[in-house]
Amino acid sequence: MENNPYLSVIIPAYNEEKRISKTLLAVDQYLQKQNFEYEILVVSDGSTDKTAEIAEDFKRNVKNLKLIDNQANHGKGWVTRQGMLAAEGQIRLFMDADNATTLDHFDKMKSYFDNGSQVVIGSRDAKDAKGAKQAVPQSGFKRLLGNMGNILIQVFAVWGIWDTQCGFKAFSAEAAKAVFSKSKIDRWGFDIEALALARKLKYKIEVVPVYWINDPHSKVSLKGYLMTFKELFQVWWWLVRDVYKLKM
Hints:
Layout: E1 7-13, H1 20-32, E2 38-45, H2 51-58, E3 65-70, H3 76-86, E4 91-95, H4 106-114, E5 119-123, E6 133-134, H5 140-156, E7 168-172, H6 173-180, H7 190-200, E8 205-209, E9 211-212, H8 222-240
Parallel strand pairs: 1-2, 1-4, 2-3, 5-8, 6-9
Antiparallel strand pairs: 4-7, 5-7
Helix pairs in contact: 5-8, 6-7, 7-8
């Protein structure tokens, strides 16, 4: 493999023994058909089940699969940052371990990168990108809560993007290093922080529609949802105070 593959796929995983095999098979199936070099990084977040063991076993049959096996749990933001900075690809994409957004959505992103874009994200909201869709639409009440929460996110951090939390985002190597070397949020609010930093660093954020398949075993709890908003205001405060040291 070349020292600098075209695409790095980062999969943060915490106790995903029931889902990681299916996801790795799907990722491998897609990548084998491509005409570019690639690598796959599974970053285990202190998993206490067989997640790391399964990923290690897959290395025998899946090309260019790497495992980062953290012994302690740090949070999805922490391990995503670790994977994005450890990756070697010209393009670095992180995706969910449950394969809610399948890797073939990268086909929609690639043309943007080919034309010089540095940050391209997936959205499940048609207000961001025509054609975005969820396999099982949420209830009207949940959509209302989500939209209200997103308005806060837009006002305080990332204006103009309705779905900041879709776990399918890609950055050029330059943008990944610039954004994730400065990011600080270790848990669910890391997506908001990454996009806010990208904006502050003058990267234009392109958006592609995704077809999102909700997993009923999602690990995002109400507590995690509320923590995201605590982290939103933390990001806002750090931006106001220039804790990220963005001003020259």
